[in-house]
Amino acid sequence: MVAVFAWSVAPARAAGERCPATFRCLSVTVPLDRSGATPGTLALPVLVERGRGPILIALGGGPGQGMVGVGPVLAGFLGPMTGRRVAVFDQRGTGATAVRCPSLQRLALTDFTVPPPGTVEACGARLGAARAFYSTTDSVEDLEAVRAALGADRVDVLGVSYGTYLAERYARAHPDRVSRLVLDSVVPQQDVDIFVRDSLRRAGHDLRALCAAGACRRITSDPVADLAAVVRRANERPLSGAVRTGPRTRTRISVDGPGLFDVATTWTSFRPDLFAFAPAALAQANDGDPDLLLRLVKLARRANPAVPAQELSWGLHTATLCADLATPWGGPASDPATRAASVSATLDPLPASSFAPFDRFTSAHNGLADTCERWPATTVAPPPEPGPLPAVPTLLLNGAWDMSTPVPGAREEAARSSTAQLVVVPHAGHSVVTGVRCTARIVRRFFRDRPLVRPCVGNPRPEALAVPRRLGDMTGSRRALARRVARLTIADATSAAGTSRRFGGLRGGWIERRGRGALVLHRDELIRGAPVSGTLGRTPRVHVGGRLNADVTFDTPGAPAVRLR
Description:
By secondary structure, this protein is α/β, with parallel strands linked by helices. It has 19 helices and 17 strands. The strands form 3 sheets. Strands 1-2-4-3-5-6-9-10 form an 8-stranded mixed β-sheet, sandwiched between helices. Strands 11-12-13-14-15-16-17 form a 7-stranded antiparallel β-sheet, covered by helices on one side. Strand 14 (532-536) and strand 15 form a beta hairpin. Mean pLDDT is 93; it is low at 1-5 and 7-15.
């Protein structure tokens, strides 16, 4: 994952490298300021597959994601799925023209991370008057210039997350130039609520869905109440503790309500393997033991490392969002010193249910609101009012568990189209075109004008993992306990190993990632009193120590083989 609101695709080619053999590369020059008051131009790199036939322009997310670098990967994926020639371009301020703000770029961020004091302000000062030229309104006209340069009378447009917002705005501004729309992880035309109230409420929905049909009965009676209690406590005094991050290292972690919202969005939208541990972590934290929860916080933060500006520009990201988002303080030209009062005036009259299971403080101080409240005053024309989409074939896709761009926004946008088909993918998070197998069939059928036919109904639900704190909390035979300890510890080790070469066990020991994907567990103690050692290769074989003293092998059909010592 690059960041919230972005394609989950690794860069395949750096901007400036030689044009791939099966592509045509061109540069489209656009004015920095279309009013002409400020001189200057931008050269936007464009990549398009060679050949004949309709063109599909794939729009990047973020905002801020460079697309030319991932163009060949996307073309290999989307071309066969859609039957179109795929084109991408680096939007202004991204990729080859990336806005560079070192104060933000060196940080590990998501949309909802609260940046340290001074970093947002330093970025705004660095950009100066150019802050005004990175709104979506500018990118809409850039996209029209790219379409004209490609020589296509009309194009299909596919956007993911922020790319859906740009696609919608372009379709409204140039309806005669769009032949088909695909919107994945939908940002509606009214844009994201700066106080993220739909996303806050979605956390309860997602926890209830994970725990449906008694799936959490061994963990907690009410995971949503656990989350609400933990948030309340964290906003009174941040949860803190030392997380084992290596064989001999610990890192101090602290998290408040806005921080919990940030990582919860990562769990549900991008890391279902971490979300599977959330009910147990919340229940334990609510019972006075935050260790597992703090571990999940650390793993979620490691899943969002700092990235180069050409991959995702956090300067552009901030400039665009703070130009586009509706705010209670009268727009981006307002005096930053006056904005806090308008936040209180907006949120204080609202009932607690507007934010539950989170709270008013989390809503007011989430990363979006905090960042744009601190952004320097900038005069930018407001976005147009939302309106109907053109009557072209339109497919909207959204993960049911996506807290980044929650389902209500997709439903609102679908209602603006007379031709829309909305598919909500069960148990899925963000960016479902690239992240969920069953969506490929949906997209193929859509581009062939065939009925979608009960799409994605079988997308599996992750298992909520009942993780006890100690072996003494578990009941069952030695054989059954060894099997369960091994499964839980392996699931935790697999999740932790994706963030670094080495990572500490929750209670003791450590995990090591070696070549070709093998994991080695060194007395990895997820459950106190039951350290697990062994290698997780093609055939996981581990030893569960302590009083269980058992070997567990996973090479047999059905239940794993257990040999007691």
